[in-house]
Amino acid sequence: MNSPVRFVLIGSGAIARVYLFALKNLPEARAVGVVSRSAKTPVGFSELPAFRSLNEVDIPFDAVLVCTPNGLHLDPVVEAAGLGKHVLCEKPIEIEIERIDRMIAACRAAGVKLGVTYQRRFSAHNPLVKRLIEAGKLGRILSVDLTVRNYRDERYFNSAPYRGTRSIDGGGCFMMQASHYIDLYCWFFGRPDHLISKVSTLLHPIEVEDHGAVICFHEAGPIATITASTVTRPGFPAKMEIYTDRGFLVMVDDVITEWAIEGMANPAGEDAPLPRGGTPLKPEEETLNQELVIRDFVRAIRQDREPLVNGEAARIATEVILEIYNRQFC
Known about the structure:
Blueprint: E1 5-10, H1 14-24, E2 29-35, E3 50-51, E4 63-66, H2 74-82, E5 86-89, H3 97-110, E6 114-116, H4 126-134, E7 141-149, H5 154-158, H6 179-189, E8 194-200, E9 211-217, E10 223-229, E11 239-244, E12 247-252, E13 255-261, H7 288-303, H8 311-326
Parallel strand pairs: 1-2, 1-4, 2-3, 4-5, 5-6, 7-10
Antiparallel strand pairs: 7-11, 8-9, 9-10, 11-12, 12-13
C-alpha cells in the first residue's frame, strides 16, 4: 500500500481550513504542516507544526497546497518547485498571464506536478454533462446562460486588507466568485472566440467590480451570456441553462434540476442532491469537491500523469477573465 502523500499548506486563512478538513477525510493524503507569515495554524488545527517560510520546514513532505491570496501564488509555487515538491494551487492560478507562465515553466523544469483547484469539474453532475457534450448526446449547443449571483456584505470585504483590491485579488466578482464557473464553462464549451462585456462597481467601496455581464461568441458553438455579481441579495445558487437543437437542461449548483432533451431520459435520475444556494458554507460542511481534487492530484503523482486541471488548463479561465476586463463595450 502506498504511503499517504504529505502536504504542507502555504497560507493559514479560511481556504486553508477548508483543505485541512478535506485532508482529514482522505486516507491517501495528509497535512503535515503549515507555512504562514504569522507561524500560526488555522483555528482547530493547532496540532500541526507551523513555519514562517518554506525553507524553514524541517519535516519530510511531498507536496504543497498553496492557499495564499490570488496575486500571491507565484512565489510559493516557484519556491516549492525549486525544492522538488509537487504543487496544488488554489484557484485562480494567478492574476496575470506572465506570472502563470512562470509558474508552469518552473514546475515543468523541476519535473513536478502542478494542479489547480477548479473543483467544479468534479462536482455533482458536471462530469456527466461534460461526457454528454463530448459525445454529442445533447445535440448542437445553441445558447448558454450562466449566472453566478452572490451577495457579499461589508464584513466580507473588511475581513482582510487585500479584499477588493486589484493588486492582490486581481478582480472582483468575475475573478473571485465566478472563476470556478468560467473554468467550467470553458471546459464544457471551449474558450469563446470573441466576447464583449460590461463590469461595474455598483455597491461596495472597492477597487474592482461587484457586478457585470458578458456575451460570448463561438464560431462553431453557442452564443452565451455570463452574469456575475456580489450585490444580489441574499445570494443565489449558480445556474447554467443549456439550450440545444434537441431541447434544454438546467443545472443549479452543478445539479441537473430540469431536463427536456428529445428522446433521452434524464441520465442523472431522480435522486439528485439539493442545490445549496449562493452563500458560503462552513469549511466542515462541504469538502467533497476539495477531496475529489486532492484525490485526483495524488493519483496524478502516483501514476505520473497530468492532474485533471493542470497549469495550462487553469490558465484559460484567467485569460478569459482578463479579456472580460479588457473588452468592455463602453
